[in-house]
Amino acid sequence: MISKDTINSPFFHHILRVGFGSLSAQLLTVITLPLLTRLYMPSAYAGWALLMSVVLVVASVATLRYELAIVLPATHEEAANVMAGCVGISCVIALLASAFISLGGTWLLGESFYDELHSWLWSIPLLIVCIGIYQAVNAWCTRTQEFKWYSLSQVALPFMTIGCQILAALWGMNTSSGLILGTLLGQFFAALLLLALIYSRYGNLILGAVSGPKIRETLVKYKAYPQYMTPYTLVGTIRERLVYFLFATYGERSSLGFYNISSRVVNIPNSLVSSAVRPVFFQHAASTDFRLLEVPVLKALRLLAACVIPFWIIFLFHAEALFALFFGEPWREAGLYAIILSVPAVPLLLSNWLDRAFDALGRQRLAFAMEFVFSVLSVIALAFGVLFFKSVLIAVCLQAGVLTVYYSYWLVALFHVARFRRGGLLKLLMTIAVLSTLSAAIAGTIRSIAPALVSLAISSVVFSALVLAYLLRQWKTHNRSNGGTLA
After folding, report:
1. How far apart are CA 151 and CA 141, in angstroms?
2. Are the CB atoms for 244 and 47 separated by under 8 Å?
3. In sequence order, which ranges of 267-363 are alpha helices (DSSP H)?
4. Half-sphere exposure of 397 (CA within 13 A, CB side)
5. d(Cα 463, Cα 310) in Å, to the nearest integer?
6. Rg (alpha carbons) of the chain, rounded to whole number
7. pTM of the model
8. Closest listed residue to residue 404, CA positions, set 350, 463, 367
9. Which of 138, 231, 316, 440 is the most buried (most CB within 10 A)?
10. Which of 174, 332, 352, 321 shows the shortest CA–CA distance to 261?
11. How many angstroms separate the CA atoms of 358 and 362, rounded?
12. Angle in degrees, 0-180, between the axes of helices 147-170 and 176-209, rounded to the nearest 10
């Protein structure tokens, strides 16, 4: 049970602090995205998404995942050497990527996009270095519980990126170039801001502790991360980004833009929850017996399900109308992609904030095995859809099915490894099933008797009232029991 003392504990205090930054960042993205989609057409997003796919595949392992080890050392001096190693590795990875891209840029981007993007190839290594530094310094903030700075970085990155993209469009760069330039400037200034903040408080400690021999020693000590987490992350990122390269080769340019926007929109709730809870959860999971977190984890999962499922059902009924309303009529078709992508997004939303649990349990090899197997199946599904059905849309549907199974199985595997009670997971599944059925019945009934936008408004009000009533009921129960449950 979660007591009042637990609610007032640093764990929940840090979640609220990081959550505030994450919420602010997501709200900024949501508020400005309708403006950006009116300044940039789907074809502009297509080129930007393809270039960023190249960047993110490499940047996901720019530090060889050593940034995860920054939280673990007993002393700040040892952690500082891990962080310095992350920065150095990022620079080396960026140089290797630059050499590879200069040789295989045409093959990587495809002939239809190469002419548009070749003048921006120089930005790829710079973005990789900035992202690597950003990851490493954020991990230092997690270690030192500087969650105020962590929260600030979450807001600074989208604020600077979106601001530069808007200015670029107003200046006349309303093509993929404006989006790329804004991303580059935003990532650069966000990394620079974090570095300045870290140096202002820990500069003397870090400079006094870091040395070449110590960096090599710590990198050897935590070699499990490049051995297991690097291939795990790389395989997962390729699985996520392969669809962009397939779209660029076999699909229409506008379809790539539709997919990109729908993917970003669908993942906003997931980004909000995981970025708010993950760093705090990982810090606590790494410093305590993981099994002691069973009750809070179960309660958080049920609470998430109760808050998410009803609004997901509304989204299924009104996705295309929502995209046309908020992003402009040219983006209506993106709603169809969003419906497909939202199916695996639900189990991912429930479990993604727990993705460092296998690290805390020392089961990185199992996590990699699952990621590898399902990523291969995902790639096979994509290839089968494109080659057999000659349809990228069908390929996306097949991949979504594989990912839905994967994210669900991942949560089951975590409960097994952590020795959590199966009854708690079964109760969660029953909650999801009941909520989905009731929500679909209510939303469907309202949709059948009212026009699209009117039924959307009514359903939103009804479900908001029901969820709010549920949350208030749980809060009152908690207060009456003087240390009762929160969910």
Report:
1. 10
2. no
3. 268-285, 294-327, 334-351, 357-360
4. 9
5. 6
6. 23
7. 0.77
8. 350
9. 138
10. 332
11. 6
12. 150
The answer to whether the CB of 60 falls within 8 A of the CB of 233 is yes
Asked whether the beta carbons of 188 and 134 are under 8 A apart, the reply is no
Q: What are phi and psi of 267, to 5 degrees?
A: -90, 0
Burial class (CB in 10 A: 0-12, 13-18, 19+), 469: exposed
From first CA to last CA, the distance across the chain in angstroms is 9
Q: Smallest Cα–Cα separation from 243: which of 385, 401, 120? A: 385
73 φ, ψ (degrees, to nearest 5) = -60, 150
Task: Provide the H-helix boundaries in 147-229.
Answer: 147-170, 176-209, 212-221, 224
What is the pLDDT, as a whole number, of residue 151?
A: 79
Instruction: Write down how long the chain is.
Output: 487
Closest listed residue to residue 401, CA positions, set 381, 386, 387, 385: 381
> Could you give the CA distance from residue 465 to residue 446 in angstroms, rounded to a whole number?
15
Distances (CA, A) of 29 to 22, 24, 130: 11, 9, 20
Task: Say if CB 193 and CB 333 are below 8 A apart.
Answer: no
**Residue 484 DSSP code:** -
For residues 296 and 314, give the distance between their C-alpha atoms in angstroms, rounded to a whole number. 28
Q: Which two tokens stand for residue 250?
A: 């076999």
Tokens of 57: 């595949």
Count other C-beta atoms under 10 Å from residue 322's C-beta. Answer: 21
Query: How confident is the model at residue 17, as a pLDDT?
Result: 57
For residue 169 the two structure tokens come to: 């469009």
pLDDT of 1: 36
**Alpha carbon distances (Å) from 390 to 153, 241, 334:** 43, 19, 20
How far is Cα 149 from Cα 360, in angstroms, rounded to an integer?
24
Give the tokens for residue 265: 């929109």
Please give the Cα distance from 177 to 135 (Å, whole number).
25
Q: Which helix (H) or strand (E) holds 110?
A: none
Predicted confidence at residue 264, as pLDDT, reads 87
Cα 453 vs. chain centroid, distance in angstroms? Answer: 30
SS3 171: coil
Segments of the chain with pLDDT less than 70 = 1-22, 272, 274-290, 478-487
**Rounded to whole angstroms, how far apart are CA atoms 428 and 247?**
36
